[in-house]
Amino acid sequence: xxxxxxxxxxxxxxxxxxxxxxxxxxxxxxxxxxxxxxxxxxxxxxxxxxxxxxxxxxxxxxxxxxxxxxxxxxxxxxxxxxxxxxxxxxxxxxxxxxxxxxxxxxxxxxxxxxxxxxxxxxxxxxxxxxxxxxxxxxxxxxxxxxxxxxxxxxxxxxxxxxxxxxxxxxxxxxxxxxxxxxxxxxxxxxxxxxxxxxxxxxxxxxxxxxxxxxxxxxxxxxxxxxxxxxxxxxxxxxxxxxxxxxxxxxxxxxxxxxxxxxxxxxxxxxxxxxxxxxxxxxxxxxxxxxxxxxxxxxxxxxxxxxxxxxxxxxxxxxxxxxxxxxxxxxxxxxxxxxxxxxxxxxxxxxxxxxxxxxxxxxxxxxxxxxxxxxxxxxxxxxxxxxxxxxxxxxxxxxxxxxxxxxxxxxxxxxxxxxxxxxxxxxxxxxxxxxxxxxxxxxxxxxxxxxxxxxxxxxxxxxxxxxxxxxxxxxxxxxxxxxxxxxxxxxxxxxxxxxxxxxxxxxxxxxxxxxxxxxxxx
Length: 521
Hints:
With 521 residues, the chain is of the alpha/beta class. The protein has 16 helices and 22 strands.
């Protein structure tokens, strides 16, 4: 907690106010307690039950959660107002927090930050603001006047407020009261739950498991510490091939067929397939692609994998950009898949493949906190895998600020390697992260250069395989295609879409299949 307070103090020195949801936090430090008492209307009054708790959300209702008068003028001290989590018991997407404020007499308006406190301070930016303008460069909201500054919460915000409560910290304005309005979700929020978009989607019945297949033997998966576990609570490792982009045309999507998946399971000994859908690139889901056709390919892939008792990884293949750029589409797409396949225990979700220029704390984690809840509406226990910054290689970032497992459930974190480019130092980083308890899933690896072409390196690949086996790290090979590049598993001259033999495989394909055949499926 002391580290958090020091970080907060740095924000205040820059002239900000931070609105935070705090788990069991009253004043945060002795200094804060003393300052609050000096200013009056201290923390006890902010959580006093005589103000009432927020009412049922059957109709619009406004609760005065805190009132008094608090001047945030003294930049040398940290002051806070806390609101207990019980006030947010009826909160859902679309509910509002109103901060009634005036400009401090000796200062111009300071920008505000809306944060909650889970495992660390996290800014809430997914909702919408009224009477204030969000400055993405600064990362805060500037009030437009003395009318209440409103924040309309998202589904993820509501969950965190229910779990942790709320606090207003900082200086530079005077606050008279904070009100909470419930029952407004029908008015909508740009980032609210996507459940209304899946009304025409029917949930399929639970499929029958085929005896002797990977899923029949291991069942639903879960995450405990750094480990992926099967339904018996035993450590389990997924491995197999990743398709190329399903949106790249029939040249790549043709490998999504029942016979191909039979070859992968029966001949290559794999237990998982990764189905890749690019949102933005090359006629992707958000780039002019035929969304209906792309969904059909994805759903066919899930069905083919399920018939063979394979696990299937639904990959929203964010590639070299901030995942928040396609957040709304991700929520709609993944909500539909999660609803239709809610009874399929073999489906896992990868929500952002390779973000870049996307810091964990300000981009990827807030994105995950928006996207995971729409999956959890229908698939509360499914394993969700979250990408990391810089082509999914900054695996250390989530260590200091992981997603709260009590809120978001079975979550793992992505690392990618290409053996000729990423050698000992990268293996050390992964090993360190796993030893510190981070559940790592290598959703993509190659046996060559990071470009995917050139530099085939069998010895470095073998070193990576050894690390994966040592720590039970799941790993998926790029790619099941005959594209003319080193990373492809199938020879460019081979037109087969199933039934491949060794002579049909590239040197990469041969090495990877030989490795897969040594593993316990």
